[in-house]
Amino acid sequence: MIVRMGRPRTKSAPKLPTTTRGRRTREGLIVAGREILERQGWPGFTPEAVAQVAGVSYGTFYTYFESKEDLLHSVLRSVAGEMFTSSLVPPDTTDDPYTRLVESNRRYLRAWDRAAKVVRIVEQGAVADEGLRQMVLEIRELYVSRSTEGIRRLQEAGLANPGLEPRLTAIALGSMVEQVGHVIDTLAEAYDEDAVVDHLSRLWAAAIGLRGAPDEGWTADPRGSGSAAAG
Amino acid sequence: MIVRMGRPRTKSAPKLPTTTRGRRTREGLIVAGREILERQGWPGFTPEAVAQVAGVSYGTFYTYFESKEDLLHSVLRSVAGEMFTSSLVPPDTTDDPYTRLVESNRRYLRAWDRAAKVVRIVEQGAVADEGLRQMVLEIRELYVSRSTEGIRRLQEAGLANPGLEPRLTAIALGSMVEQVGHVIDTLAEAYDEDAVVDHLSRLWAAAIGLRGAPDEGWTADPRGSGSAAAG
Amino acid sequence: MIVRMGRPRTKSAPKLPTTTRGRRTREGLIVAGREILERQGWPGFTPEAVAQVAGVSYGTFYTYFESKEDLLHSVLRSVAGEMFTSSLVPPDTTDDPYTRLVESNRRYLRAWDRAAKVVRIVEQGAVADEGLRQMVLEIRELYVSRSTEGIRRLQEAGLANPGLEPRLTAIALGSMVEQVGHVIDTLAEAYDEDAVVDHLSRLWAAAIGLRGAPDEGWTADPRGSGSAAAG
Amino acid sequence: MIVRMGRPRTKSAPKLPTTTRGRRTREGLIVAGREILERQGWPGFTPEAVAQVAGVSYGTFYTYFESKEDLLHSVLRSVAGEMFTSSLVPPDTTDDPYTRLVESNRRYLRAWDRAAKVVRIVEQGAVADEGLRQMVLEIRELYVSRSTEGIRRLQEAGLANPGLEPRLTAIALGSMVEQVGHVIDTLAEAYDEDAVVDHLSRLWAAAIGLRGAPDEGWTADPRGSGSAAAG
DNA sequence: AATGAATGAGGCTTCATTCAT
DNA sequence: GATGAATGAAGCCTCATTCAT
Q1: Which of A126, B25, B128, D32 fits as disulfide partner to D53, beta carbons 3.0 to 4.6 Å?
Q2: Which residue windows does the record flag with biased composition (Basic residues) (chains A, B, C, D) (predicted)?
Q3: Which nucleotide's C1' sits nearest to the alpha carbon of A58?
Q4: Residue extents of the structural domains in chain B
């Protein structure tokens, strides 16, 4: 996807804008770049298209960015920032672990929904670009480490299966949520968000053996306690 | 486009080879195409590169394929075929559900490992190509439906939580396995296969509440029963 | 073709230039295209050759034209425009029909001389391009209808054979002039323009039975009145 | 149209076939070549297409022809031969000059109808190929000289305007007939053959002042004597 | 800063011709 | 002779980037 990524940068890096107008133009290009990536994918992500969507001439693109890849980095940074803020579960929520898990999964799913498009596109290019790979890794790490900590705390509180390695478990369950979002989106399976969030949360809870979760000791209630969503 | 000042585009579709030599050349191009896709991704997937890897001139490429995309279809078909055969769990294996699950996950993980690269690349292009989308969907469906059936049987046998919707569950857990393979591979998390397969299988089993699985009733054995692999 | 693994072909249509420089470059490409068509015919008409003659890089070609064929349209339009203006007989000329006829034929011959080359080339391609066919038709129609009117007026004035269908006659005699220009040019018959114009005019006049034309009642003067040019 | 025509022939010319089968294959290729030229024009005239229409493999093409252009020469020769035989007015026809003229024009028109397609295509290539130019010239010459002789005889017999230069006149009137055929065909003017032949013949006759032709002394009969065909 | 014209490396594809079988 | 696979020069076009205004 990304072709000439390793080439030596001999060029003077475009400086950050000093004026307000310049800053706005630059932001506009990043927003436009992200929109295009999300809507048209990598092949549509051309400086000309980005400039057009941003409403500036294509020459202007190079006033703010050294190259396409430079913009891609900025877009990815912006995506990462947004994801971080939008997916946090506010601290004033209930203390019930399962409820928090459900809420967390819902936010995660929504946040990834947009981010994943960009991340997946970037991953293709990351093969040849160490910088991109680092950034993707950092974004994932953000979630994995947060989730790892959550699992560890539950284990320490005796609320989750202590036999599980927390990080690998976090990776696995985070992968599940991310990929489900992608699969359902891409392949147009007709599940609604609530059904998906419900199932993911129950599977997640059961997987780590969360105490007090809906499916705990399902034998007692052969009909299950959750809503069995249909496809 | 305005005009094709030429004959009506009949574009004699590249015929399947009639001779053995031709068949071998064609196969070679598909193999080469797959290798390049896996190693260099879409941008490296040029007719010229493919032909070079296959050891023929680029003109030969067009003896057998209409276009780059035509070859992509063939590569994807080949990947699908290989995945199908290589990921089946031989019927003469044990009847213990958990053992079967472990074996199935191991095979799935291995098979997806190569296929996923191609599938992910193709997915990017699938946005604009109904044919590709169909093929990706079919490949996934293969696994989802097989897995859905497995879950349903376990539920009917009273061995798994009957409150789960089998297909959504299959999608979620399949997603987990697929994405874990990708994340670990791409982001170079240093887990070995056994640890990963073990954890995935335990998470999977616990998620569906599989009777007789290692983590069933983990409270009884606070140390857990599985090997807690570390990163 | 199977797939365009890329963004939906929006193919931002080459815009008309907004600056003077751009306009000049565009004109230059049209002029260059015409020159090449006339001198080297269709096979020489490559974007690269045109750009070279115009003194720009071939990339610039695509700044102004979507394709080779797009330029062809522009060239043809330019040829048509030039023909129209250059072949009009100024209104202040004599009223003597034969003198007007001679003048008209001379201009027609000259104008067609260059245009015909382009028109004939275009006709080959017109088989597959409705737009081109239309343009060729319009160019011809310009002359046919003008000529048809001329004949009709002469008939109504009692100066020409009223038994002739004006339009078919106009087509036939126009065809004669056009094709004579071509044959003489292509096959290098060594007639000079005056001799040709003289003969064509006399044949034309006699064909429609024009009153007062040189060959009217030729028996009275067995030596004829015109110059008998030799090959 | 014809690209690399001047390149030195270093190749051993394919010999004429010795066997009957070979001769038939060769003829078949010529016929196929002509069909393709007429139906699809120059761009469709590829060795592969020709071979396919002829029902042989494309390798076989080069058994009989050195190159595409070699075949073109053969096709043109075949067209020339056919035209010659098909357009002769049988000697046992009436001696009335006008009737012979009408018959001659009708045959000419029909014969050119097919030939002209090929001739016009070839003319495009003739720019760069001396051999082709010669052949086209010879085909035309056939008609021009025959027609020149006809006119000269009429003049000597006192039946046509002796003030006209016979060859230039022959070229002009022959051009008229040829081009009318083309214009009507290409631009789809809806005249039927009889109307066209009638008009062409009357124009031709009047142009040379043929004694005893329908429009001679049209003033005596203001309604004209011919059928005024309409479009 | 902004503009938009200009550049040219590089990609995809065609097709006339050659060659091994 | 016949076959059809193989070849590669040459064409068309895209698009990231530079540059003159």
Answers
A1: D32
A2: 1-12
A3: E4
A4: 14-66, 77-211
